[in-house]
Design brief:
About 40% of the residues are buried. The protein is an alpha/beta fold. The longest helix has 17 residues. It has a single domain, classed as Vaccinia Virus protein VP39 (Rossmann fold, 3-Layer(aba) Sandwich), CATH 3.40.50.150. It has ten helices and seven strands. The radius of gyration is 18 Å and the shape is globular. The chain has a seven-stranded mixed β-sheet, with helices on both faces. Helix 2 packs parallel to helix 3 and helix 2 crosses helix 9.
Length: about 260
Amino acid sequence: MNSEQEKRRQESISWDRSAGYSDYYSILAYFQAQSVLENTQGDSLLDLACGDGTITAMLSAKFKRVVGVDASTSHLIKAKGRCPKAEFKESLIETFETRERFDVVTMLNILEHVIDPVLALQRAASFLREDGILIVHVPNALAVNRVIARIMGTLTDEYELSPYDINVAGHRRSYDMRSLVDDFKSAGLEVISTGGIFYKMLSTPQMDWLLRNGPWADGSFGWGRVGAEKEKDWKFEFCRACYEFGKTRPDDCNVIYTCAKKK
């Protein structure tokens, strides 16, 4: 597949963060941004590929210089509206060129989409300053909700790509922590840390329904002692707890990450 064909493929992907399961996807984006900020350094950020700019905008306050790259024109229109302080470039990762080097390069939810993940990692790392950090997030095939789904029989195995994964989200592969780290090693990069983001025990539609419709406001949601602090945003507290607990169980999380640097 040549670059023009791949760009057309990226333009055709219909997944939209705000169109389906938006409550859960917005929460996940928030905590993915938090994870990046907890693992970051420096003043400049290159976001490959930035998509609709939701996470780019959340990160932008931390950095003096922000550049987002994406192959989709429609995504970039949304990204520019969300993050006016950033500079955006329309390109595939594989064909993007710049002489600029960055303190942080992020690849958030993109490695599962590309044709050659090792090449994509090498290209991303080439834009790092000598002490820069590459941060990569991917969906976790072994997330606890997928293990439960396999036991239930709704997945044949945890690594299965569903029609939604392939046709809507545009995934080409599944990752667990071992296979993610293996790709970094094949790319000649030094892994400095790994982790997990958000302990997700239910499917995405179930999580979205719970966040949208759950009995959060009246304190009757059923977790331990209630009523002492009713002014709290219990929906957010639940999500924060899932994020913090996920740090202790990274291999079970919805998203896994690797931070690396050039050798």
